Amino acid sequence: MSAPMKFGIIGAGCIGQLRAKALAQAEGCILAAIADVDSARARAMAPSPDVKIFQNVTEMLALADLDAVIVSTPPQFHEELVVAAFKAGKHVLCEKPLANTVEACRRMVEAARTSGKVLATGFNHRYFPQIQYLKQAIDTGLIGELDHVRAFAGHTGLSEFRNPWEYDKNVIGGGAMMDVGIHIIDLTRYVLGEVDEVYGFTSNRVWNLGASEDNGIALLRNPQGKYAVLQATWTEWKGYRFYLEAYGSKGMVRAYYAPMMNLLITQDKPGGRRKRTVRFYPMTMLREKFVGWQSSVIQMFTQELTDFARLTRGESSAIADGVAGMRAVEIANAVYRSSKEHLAVRLAEKT
After folding, report:
1. Residue 269 vs residues 134, 149, 249, 264: alpha-carbon distances, Å
2. Closest by alpha carbon to 88, among 56, 128, 51?
3. Secondary structure element (H or E) that encloses residue 282, with its range
4. What is the enclosing helix (H) or strand (E) of 27?
């Protein structure tokens, strides 16, 4: 049995705190250190006195027995911290978005390659059980050959944010597309495959935040000519929700949240007799009602950390790697360019 993997967390905010709880549950993972400008906050989230606390990230990265770090700071700090971690010989799991510019993402991916260490992106939505069910329905051919994808994510906008930087383009790199949209961009690419062409529209007529759009709508196409329709919004007055739908020659499958559910429709041939299956997750729904949505996030983080450890060992993993994080930011920025220039944007082949 391999030795436990020792992690450091950079950033002791809300997400960092959830990451610490997930590390306590992830088999073969140990939280060994926390770095944050607020040492009292960092100490408060440490599960035991054995966890080392740092205000200086460089000092934490100098720990010889630290295997990996989780970067859970605001996005404008991601590049500097991730590159420093690679120079110190650590693997890195970085929260989404990978960075707030395409250029920064590319430098981070290149730094990972140069160091020979793993870079992963915190797209934990891949670990929602209803998303896993959808992916399995596609991969096993339940809906026949995949034809197209529909995706949506939204919430009520500024009332959802704890801090002004969370809707500041200079920090997160955009508006709704770089916020709720970045997850569904990744999920769409996860099931559709590589994206090579983007056409998009954005608007900011509700919150009037300038470069941070209220709404973004995109058409994505893969090299095989299959496509996706995607919307990210900060004007979903019904409250937070997202869904992903995949349509094939013999049916469709839908993953929805909240509440968490699936819809599967299958048929023996196009236009044939349809069978309808609805799948609910009552225990999850009850747990979130009485404990909070954070309980589901911790579960997904735990699975993601297990997959991250597999990736560092060169094993097969469903986790989003650094390239996936970079491509999601590239797609979001292609939507912005397309909306501004009124043209379809071709994406370069991934390198």
Report:
1. 20, 19, 7, 15
2. 56
3. helix 282-290
4. none
Tokens 């989230």 sit on residue: 45
How many whole angstroms separate alpha carbon 81 and alpha carbon 71?
7
Separation CA 269–CA 163 (nearest Å)? 51
Residue 214 has pLDDT above 90, yes or no: yes
The answer to whether the pTM exceeds 0.90 is yes
Q: Tell me if 31 sits within 8 A of 20, measured CB to CB.
A: yes
Q: Are 8 and 66 in contact (CB under 8 A)?
A: yes
* Spatial distance between the Cα atoms of 183 and 322, rounded to a whole number of angstroms: 14
Backbone angles phi, psi at 111, to 5 degrees: -65, -35
C-alpha 195, offset from chain centre: 17
pLDDT tens digit sequence for 255-296: 999 999 999 999 999 989 999 999 999 999 899 889 899 999
Q: CB burial class (10 A; 0-12, 13-18, 19+) of residue 56?
A: exposed
Q: Judge whether 186 and 125 are in contact, CB under 8 Å.
A: yes
Q: Which 3 state secondary structure label does DSSP give 41?
A: helix
Number of C-beta neighbours around residue 211 at 10 A: 13
Q: Please name the helix (run of DSSP H) or strand (run of DSSP E) that holds residue 204, with its range, or none.
A: none
How far apart CA 280 and CA 224 sit, in angstroms, is: 33
244, β-bridge pairs: 151, 255
